[in-house]
Amino acid sequence: MATSISGKRIAFLATDGVEEVEYTEPRKAVENAGGTAELLSIKDGAIQAVNHMDKAGTYPVDKLVRDARVAEYDALVLPGGVANPDFLRADASAVRFVRDFVATGKPVAAICHGPWTLVEAGVVDGRTLTSWPSLRTDVKNAGATWVDEEVHVDGSLITSRKPDDLPAFCDRLLDRVAA
Q1: Residues 112, 119, 121, 157: which is the catalytic one?
Q2: What is the tally of helices (H) and strands (E) in the chain?
């Protein structure tokens, strides 16, 4: 039987440069499991996704992150892409939202370059996580242990390395939200 997360609201925090498949596949998994997905961003209108470095689709923003309340959501997803988390970690509202979300103990799932925002929020010290390999030094310098695994769960943090890991990433996300 498939995991059901009916009645659960999942925030996706992303902006221009988000890796399309790292946004669309987890969102599809959430919606197929009966959950509600909401795109939060640092900008109004729509965000421009990419497929590696090439422009891909655009996606409408549901709410500015500065107007979002952590209490409204049951989980947070941080998709990657190189530019997306770099823009997010430079935005005080996005960093504060991530920091506050992690503090609740609710599930936070970050894939590929997504953990950059976790590093900036100062929430990885003493934790173990994975990411795109180029973030390894940043993760270690932030006090975390970096592992090369398809998906790693450390308490409420769920992390994966790359798009190939999306099936396991989505499964762990749904399992944690349903728990």
Answers
A1: 112
A2: 6, 12
- 3-state SS class at 110: strand
Q: How far is CA 8 from CA 170, 176, 177, in A?
A: 15, 12, 8
- Percent of the chain clearing pLDDT 70 (strictly above): 99
In this prediction, residues 95-117 reach a mean pLDDT of: 98
Give CATH superfamily name and number for 9-111+165-178: Class I glutamine amidotransferase (GATase) domain (3.40.50.880)
Average pLDDT, rounded, for the chain = 97
What is the H or E stretch that residue 100 is in? Answer: helix 92-104
pTM, entire model = 0.97
Helix (H, G, I), strand (E, B) or coil at 35: coil
Catalytic residue flag (residue 170): no
- Is residue 58 within a helix (H) or strand (E), and if so which, with residue range? strand 54-60
**What is the reported pLDDT for 93?**
98
d(CA 161, CA 43): 26
Element at 19 (helix H, strand E): strand 18-19
| Domain ranges, ordered by start, for the chain | 9-111+165-178
C-beta of residue 44 within 8 angstroms of C-beta of residue 60: no
